[in-house]
Amino acid sequence: MTQAPVHPRPAALARWLWAVALLVIAVVAVGGITRLTESGLSITEWKPVSGVLPPLTDAAWLAEFEKYKQIPEYREINFGMSLAAFKAIFFWEWLHRILGRLVGLALLVPLAWYAWRRAVPAGYGWRLLALAALVGLQGAIGWWMVASGLVDRTDVSHYRLATHLLTALFLLAALVWTARDLGTLARDPAARPAPLTGPGIAVALILTVQLLLGAWVAGLNAGYVASDWPMMNDHFVPRGIDWSNGVWFAVTNDPFLLHFLHRWWSWIAALALLLLARVLARRGARVEPALLLLVVAAQMTLGILTVVSGISMWIAVLHQLTGALLVAVTAAALHRLGRRTA
Question: How far apart, in whole angstroms, are the C-alpha atoms of residue 203 and residue 272?
Answer without folding.
Answer: 6
